[in-house]
């Protein structure tokens, strides 16, 4: 439920003053970005060196969490920062899995093992004092031993199409957003304000080129302090962005059966906003490999392959819900989560110092979930339902289930800052890419049969190369340097001791 309320003066300071880009907020954004970038490099290193799939997805996620926890603990030790830590647990979803795969030790489902050709989506986030940087990157698994014996080959086929589309759409949208920093840009996409309608049209045009569909959960949205779209339960009175909502997209697809000539976007009123300089934006795009077929991409809860039911490992606090807890373990867990994780999603292991604490937390969890104080983030997979199924009426649930097929999904997510010349020390407008970018998250080696020929899109893709012409300084926050062997050694040892 979306609750509207009058803001107090203290709340207005939190919303307005604390969201202005200045030296303090930029420092925190940059640091969050640097830690997130470093964490992404660390996890990619684990995937590259995962010989013979010696580590499960769950093990790699937990190693990534431990790396981020150590990195955030080591910053702002002397300066006053009220909160810092993981904003999104490390998640690794392969192929049709789309979100929330972050297994705890001892969970029945450990995410499986990765093999050559899998598209693994790495997702994580970090915040410093509520200033949040999130990232996601599609990483194609290679067989290192096979590469040594024969000439390596790129990934091809529908997965490659999805990987290309997600990457190119992300880069194009970031360039489109940067146009607010140079109103006089002489390119077609720069005519008029940058609106939600423009963003959505661009993304869907690229998806069409590569014969894929934008998957539910995709969004391009403004980020503010403590409000980064990290959880659906966090209500926002002043949301600004475009989303691809599953129900809305399904309605759009079905409406074309009866009125195929109507291809306009269905929620123009919701996307009627303008991007402005001085804002921070999240570009989070998922592409489903649908092979150009007409249909609907749906997500469904994954509950396991066999008799053992898979339970969620990530939870979010719903601060709108109040209830007098009866169980002491539940009260303790609620208190610790509020102190350690704030408004961000978390795993029980984040609030437990040892095995005894974790066991106690599990005892208290059920009451918190039962009364909707903690909302579990379920593991979800993507499925494709052919549109032909709906032509002759409303199919039954059984018919839809029978016709649904798992569909691989690629994902890219970056957090960017649109810094005006007035706010910049250099005197030039700056687009600061806090996460992602070709150095930290280079595109995997894939080959698609499709390519971008649209001149407007190609102009956007080349826009950053002409930064002197357009007067914008493009910066990518770089990861910290570290020794992989030294970084993983203490983490591995601590996990063994537990």
From TrEMBL:
One record GO biological process: proteolysis
GO-annotated molecular function: metal ion binding; metallopeptidase activity
Coiled-coil annotated spans: none
Key words of the record: Cytoplasm, Hydrolase, Metal-binding, Metalloprotease, Nucleus, Protease
Gene Ontology terms: cellular component: cytoplasm; nucleus
Primary location: cytoplasm
Family: Belongs to the peptidase M24 family.
Entry function: Probable metalloprotease involved in proper assembly of pre-ribosomal particles during the biogenesis of the 60S ribosomal subunit. Accompanies the pre-60S particles to the cytoplasm.
Protein known as: Probable metalloprotease ARX1
């Amino acid at each position: 439920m979306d609750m509207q309320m009058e803001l107090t003066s203290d709340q207005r300071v939190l919303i307005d003053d604390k969201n202005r880009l200045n030296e303090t907020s930029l420092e925190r954004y940059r640091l969050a970005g640097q830690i997130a970038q470093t964490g992404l490099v660390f996890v990619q290193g684990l995937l590259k060196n995962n010989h013979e799939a010696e580590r499960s997805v769950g093990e790699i996620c937990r190693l990534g969490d431990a790396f981020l926890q150590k990195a955030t603990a080591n910053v702002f030790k002397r300066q006053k920062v009220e909160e810092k830590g993981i904003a999104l647990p490390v998640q690794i979803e392969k192929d049709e899995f789309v979100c929330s795969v972050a297994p705890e030790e001892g969970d029945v489902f450990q995410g499986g093992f990765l093999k050559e050709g899998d598209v693994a989506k790495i997702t994580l986030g970090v915040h410093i004092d509520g200033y949040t940087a999130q990232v996601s990157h599609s990483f194609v698994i290679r067989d290192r031993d096979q590469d040594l014996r024969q000439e390596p080959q790129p990934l091809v086929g529908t997965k490659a199409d999805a990987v290309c589309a997600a990457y190119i759409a992300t880069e194009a949208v970031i360039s489109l957003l940067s146009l607010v920093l140079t109103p006089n840009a002489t390119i077609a996409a720069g005519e008029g304000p940058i609106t939600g309608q423009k963003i959505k049209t661009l993304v869907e045009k690229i998806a069409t080129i590569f014969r894929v569909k934008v998957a539910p959960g995709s969004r391009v949205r403004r980020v503010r302090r403590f409000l980064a779209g990290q959880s659906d339960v966090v209500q926002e009175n002043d949301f600004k962005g475009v989303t691809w909502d599953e129900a809305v997209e399904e309605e759009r697809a079905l409406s074309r059966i009866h009125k195929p000539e109507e291809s306009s976007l269905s929620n123009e009123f919701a996307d009627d906003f303008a991007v402005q300089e001085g804002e921070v934006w999240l570009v989070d795009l998922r592409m489903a490999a649908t092979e150009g077929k007409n249909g609907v991409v749906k997500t469904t809860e994954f509950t396991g392959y066999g008799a053992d039911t898979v339970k969620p490992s990530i939870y979010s606090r719903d601060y709108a819900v109040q209830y007098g807890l009866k169980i002491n373990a539940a009260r303790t867990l609620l208190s610790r989560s509020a102190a350690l994780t704030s408004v961000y999603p978390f795993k029980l292991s984040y609030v437990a110092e040892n095995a005894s604490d974790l066991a106690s937390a599990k005892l208290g969890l059920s009451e918190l979930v039962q009364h909707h104080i903690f909302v579990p983030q379920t593991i979800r997979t993507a499925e494709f339902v052919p549109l032909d199924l709906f032509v002759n009426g409303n199919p039954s649930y059984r018919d839809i289930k029978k016709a649904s097929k798992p569909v691989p999904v690629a994902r890219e997510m970056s957090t960017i800052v649109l810094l005006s010349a007035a706010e910049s020390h250099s005197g030039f407008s700056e687009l600061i890419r806090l996460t992602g970018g070709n150095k930290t998250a280079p595109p995997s080696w894939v080959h698609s049969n499709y390519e971008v020929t649209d001149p407007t899109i190609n102009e956007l893709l080349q826009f950053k190369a002409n930064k002197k012409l357009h007067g914008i300084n493009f910066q990518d926050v770089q990861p910290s340097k570290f020794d992989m062997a030294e970084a993983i050694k203490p983490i591995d040892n601590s996990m063994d001791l537990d």
